[in-house]
Design goal:
Number of domains: 6
CATH class of the largest domain: Alpha Beta
Distance between the termini: 41 Å
Largest sheet: 9 strands, mixed
Radius of gyration: 26 Å
Helix content: 25-40%
CATH topology of the largest domain: Rossmann fold
Number of helices: 16
Strand content: 25-35%
Shape: globular
Structural class: alpha+beta
Length: 684
C-alpha cells in the first residue's frame, strides 16, 4: 500500500494530510507547532499518526513538507557566521544598495543592518568587464591570504561575489576552488553565479548572502529531520517545498536553502489551483489566513503568477517565487491602539505560544481569535475536535481591557477587531488585483487556512466578489497541496544582446547551455526520462529599459521565423502590462529561463459522498454585523455531502476550521467536496 504525507509547518499549527489511495481514504491531523524545534512537531505528529491509524512506516512513499525555518532564522537573525569575498572596491555594495528608502516618507526607517558586517567582507584584486574581457586578473595570492585569515577565525560559509560573474564566472569559480583547498570541510564556499546567475549585482550579491547565512541553519534542521524520520522506519527521504512552487530534494535544499524561504504559502496556492481547476473555476483569488498572517494570490485561467524579485526580512531576493502577498492579519494577530487612538490589528502575533488569550497559555493581548470567540463565530468550548480547550472568559477579559481604552462596548470592540483585520486583507487583495488591472468581481474567492473561511464573507463583500469556494479541508490545504506537487527547478542563463538577425544563434547557444545543466539536474534527482518536463521562456526588454518581460518559447529549434513570433509576443505582453507597445523600437535579450519538472506519482483527488440531509448538532448566538445577532444552527462539515443545500445563517465546524454562512446566503457542496457559497442568493 502506497501512503503519501504532506506537512505544512506554520507559526501556530503544524498540519498533516495523509492520502491512502488504495483505501480511498484521507487522514487529517493538526498539532501545535514547536517554534524552537520545528522538526519535533513533524516527527511527533507523524509518529502519532502511524500508531493511531496502524500505518506501516515502510508504506510511506513520499513525505513532502513546507517549512518556515529559513524565514524565521532571517527575521530573528539567528543565522550562520558568513564572510564575503568580492571585487576590489565593492565591499560596501551590500550597504549602499540602490539608495531607495524602505518608506519614502519615513525619514527614520532605514534598511536592516547587513547580515555580514563590514569587517567580514573582503576585497581581492580582480575585474572582469561586462563583455567578458579580463580587465584585472584574479590575484590568487590575495585570495589565499583571505582564506588563511578566515581559517583562523572560524567561518560557517564564504560567499564569493564578483562583478559580471553572472555571465563570466571563471574568476568566481577559481577563487572558490582556492578557498575550498584552504578551508577544507570546516566551511562551505558558494558563488553568486551558482546561486542564481542574473545581472544586477546588488540583488545577486544579496541573494547569495541570504543563501549563505541559511546554509548551516537549514543543514542542521534537515539533518535532524531526516535522522528522526529514518528512526521511525520511514525509508522515503523528506522533500521540501519551494517558494516558486513544487518540491526539491533534501540535497538540493541543503545547497540552496533560500529557495524554501516562502514555501508554505506557495504550497497553499498550488493546492488551491489544483482544486479550482477540478471545479472548472479558472479565475480565483486565494485567501489563506493562518495564525500569523493572511496570504493572498491571484490565479488567471488556473495558473498562479510568478515574480522574480521580492524582499525577505527587508533584504532583496532575486529568485522565482509564486506571487503571494502576505500581511499580518492572522487569527493570532494582536489588536492594539496606535498613538492616534485608532484600533489596529497586527502585524505582531501571539504565535503558537502563548497564543490568543482564550487558549489559556498565558496570553493576555486581545487577538482576532479572541474576538471571534466573543462574537460566537468560534465555539466557546474547544477547537480541533475537542483537543484544544477554549476559555471564553479569558477572551472577554482581553477584549474588555481594549474596550475600556477605546471607550467602546465589548461587542463593538470585538467586531471592530474582525473588521480591521478584514480591511487589511482587502487592501492586500486590491494590491494584486485592482492595482494590476483585474476586477475582483470577475473572480471567485478561494478561502482556506484555519481562519480563511471565517473571514471570507466580509472580504468578498468588500471586493464585490459574488462566490466563495471553501475546500473540504481548508485548514490543511497547504499540506494537501504538497501531495500533488512535483520536483521542480528553475534555471537561468544570462545572454545580454540585441534582438536582431543573430538572435536565433544567441538563443540557441543559451538553450544548449541550459540543456546541459538541465540534464545534470534530472540525473542528480533520479528523474526518469519519461517524467522529465521543461518550460522555456526568454526575458526581453526595449533597449534602454530597466526591467524585462518574460515571453514563453515553444519551438525546439529557434530560427528567423520563430524569432519574429517571439518579437510579436513581446510587444503584446508589453502592451498588456503597460498599456502600450513600440514595434519599431530595438529589443534586447536579457536571458533565457527553463523551468524543470520531475513528475511524481500523485494520489487522486477524492470525490465527496452523497447525502440528502444534514442535522443540526447545536445552536448558539452569533454576531454577523453590529446589533445583528442570530440564534444560529451549527452543522458538522463532514455531514454536508453532495446533494445538500443550505441557506444562512449557519456556522459550519470541522476539525481544522470554522466557516460562517451569513443570513440569506446559499451554500451547496459540489462533487469534489468544496462548499460553494453564493453571496447574492443565486448561483453565478
Amino acid at each position: 500500500m502506497a501512503v503519501y504525507i504532506g506537512v505544512d509547518v506554520g507559526g501556530t499549527f503544524t498540519d498533516f494530510a495523509i492520502s491512502l489511495p488504495d483505501e480511498n481514504r484521507q487522514i487529517l491531523h493538526k498539532v501545535p507547532s514547536t517554534p524552537g524545534e520545528p522538526d519535533k512537531a513533524i516527527v511527533d505528529g507523524v509518529k502519532d499518526l502511524l500508531q493511531r491509524h496502524v500505518i506501516a512506516p515502510g508504506d510511506i512513499v513520499r513525505l513532502g513538507h513546507g517549512t518556515t525555518v529559513g524565514t524565521n532564522a532571517l527575521i530573528q537573525r539567528k543565522v550562520g557566521k558568513v564572510a564575503v569575498v568580492t571585487s576590489e572596491g565593492f565591499r560596501d555594495l551590500l550597504e549602499i544598495g540602490r539608495q531607495v528608502r524602505p518608506k519614502v516618507y519615513d525619514m527614520h526607517q532605514d534598511f536592516p543592518e547587513p547580515l555580514v558586517p563590514r569587517w567580514r567582507r573582503y576585497e581581492v584584486p580582480e575585474r572582469m568587464r561586462a563583455d567578458g574581457v579580463v580587465h584585472t586578473a584574479l590575484n590568487e595570492d590575495a585570495v589565499s591570504r583571505v582564506g588563511q585569515e578566515l581559517a583562523s577565525e572560524g567561518t560557517d560559509c564564504v560567499a564569493v561575489c564578483f562583478l559580471h560573474s553572472h555571465a563570466f564566472p571563471a574568476h568566481e569559480e577559481r577563487a572558490a576552488a582556492l578557498l575550498r583547498e584552504i578551508l577544507g570541510d570546516e566551511s562551505s564556499v558558494i558563488t553568486s553565479s551558482a546561486v542564481y546567475p542574473e545581472f544586477r549585482e546588488y540583488e545577486r550579491f544579496s541573494t547569495t548572502v541570504l543563501n549563505a547565512v541559511l546554509l548551516t541553519v537549514m543543514t542542521a534542521y534537515l539533518d535532524r529531520l531526516t535522522k528522526a524520520v529514518g528512526g521511525l522506519g520511514i525509508s522515503a527521504e523528506p522533500t521540501v517545498s519551494q517558494s516558486g512552487g513544487g518540491l526539491m530534494s533534501v540535497d538540493y535544499s541543503r545547497q540552496y536553502p533560500i529557495r524554501s524561504a516562502l514555501s508554505g504559502p506557495a504550497a497553499g496556492v498550488l493546492g488551491a489551483a489544483y482544486r479550482a481547476k477540478a471545479t472548472g473555476q479558472g479565475n480565483v483569488i486565494t485567501l489563506d489566513v493562518g495564525g500569523t498572517s493572511a496570504d493572498v494570490s491571484l490565479l488567471v485561467d488556473g495558473e498562479p503568477s510568478t515574480v522574480h524579485s521580492r524582499r525577505l526580512a527587508g533584504f532583496p531576493l532575486r529568485l522565482p517565487a509564486l506571487d503571494v502577498n502576505a500581511v499580518g492579519a492572522g487569527g493570532g494577530s494582536i489588536a492594539w491602539i496606535d498613538r492616534d487612538g485608532l484600533l489596529k490589528v497586527g502585524p505582531h502575533s501571539a504565535g503558537a505560544l502563548p497564543g490568543p488569550a482564550c487558549y489559556g497559555n498565558g496570553g493576555e493581548a486581545a487577538t482576532v481569535t479572541d474576538a471571534n470567540v466573543l462574537l460566537g463565530r468560534l465555539p466557546s468550548g474547544s477547537l480541533l475536535d475537542g483537543r484544544m480547550a477554549i476559555r471564553r472568559e479569558l477572551a472577554e477579559a482581553a477584549i474588555d481591557r481594549l474596550a475600556e481604552a477605546l471607550e467602546m462596548s465589548r461587542e463593538d470592540t470585538a467586531l471592530g477587531i474582525v473588521q480591521v483585520a478584514c480591511a487589511v486583507i482587502v487592501k492586500a487583495i486590491r494590491a494584486i488585483s485592482v492595482e494590476r488591472g483585474h476586477d475582483p468581481s470577475d473572480f471567485a474567492l478561494f478561502a482556506f487556512g484555519g481562519a480563511g473561511p471565517l473571514h471570507a464573507n466580509e472580504v468578498a463583500r468588500d471586493l464585490g466578489i459574488k462566490q466563495i469556494l471553501i475546500p473540504p479541508n481548508p485548514g490543511i490545504l497547504c499540506a494537501e497541496g504538497l501531495l500533488g506537487s512535483d520536483l521542480v527547478a528553475d534555471l537561468v542563463h544570462p545572454s545580454l544582446a540585441p534582438f536582431c538577425d543573430d538572435a536565433p544563434d544567441v538563443l540557441n547557444r543559451a538553450r544548449e547551455e541550459l540543456n546541459k545543466r538541465a540534464d545534470a539536474w534530472f540525473v542528480a534527482e533520479a528523474v526518469a526520462p519519461i517524467d522529465r518536463r521543461s518550460i522555456w521562456s526568454v526575458d526581453l526588454r526595449y533597449a534602454g529599459q530597466n526591467f524585462e518581460l518574460s515571453v514563453p518559447l515553444v519551438d525546439a529549434d529557434l530560427n528567423a521565423t520563430s524569432a519574429g513570433i517571439i518579437r510579436q509576443k513581446f510587444d503584446t505582453a508589453h502592451e498588456n502590462a503597460y498599456g502600450f507597445a513600440q514595434p519599431e523600437e530595438l529589443v534586447e535579450i536579457v536571458g533565457m529561463r527553463v523551468k524543470l519538472t520531475g513528475v511524481l506519482a500523485k494520489p487522486p483527488l477524492h470525490k465527496a459522498g452523497v447525502s440528502e440531509a444534514a442535522s443540526v448538532v447545536e445552536s448558539r448566538q452569533v454576531a454577523f454585523t453590529r446589533d445583528d445577532w442570530h440564534q444560529t444552527p451549527i452543522y458538522r462539515r463532514e455531514d454536508l455531502t453532495v446533494g445538500f443545500e443550505l441557506v444562512g445563517p449557519a456556522a459550519i465546524e470541522q476539525m481544522d476550521s470554522t466557516l460562517l454562512l451569513f443570513p440569506d446566503d446559499r451554500a451547496y457542496t459540489d462533487e469534489w467536496g468544496n462548499l460553494v457559497i453564493d453571496l447574492v442568493g443565486e448561483r453565478v
